[in-house]
Amino acid sequence: MKFVSRYCLKDLRELNRLTLEQVTDRTTIPLERLKFLESDSTKIEASERQCISKLYNLSMEYIFFGKQADFDRKLNEYLGGTP
C-alpha cells in the first residue's frame, strides 16, 4: 500500500529544527533511509510511520492521511501518475 505524506517529512523535520542526524538518533530509521523517505515517502513502512509519528508527537493519520493526501492523490492520478 502506498502512502502520500500530508506533510513533507523534510518540512516536519525543519519545522522542529532537527538535523537528519538528530532524527536518526531519536528514531530507528537509518540516515540513508531517512534521506530517501524525505524525497519519496510513498513506500514508508508501518514501523517508520510510527517512529515519525512519535518523534513529532502527531498522529499517523494527521501526517499521512487526510484531505491534503486525498487531493495530492487525485492530482497525481489526473497528471498521469500512479494512484
TrEMBL record:
InterPro entries: Lambda_DNA-bd_dom_sf. GO terms for molecular function: DNA binding. This is Transcriptional regulator. It comes from the Bacteria.
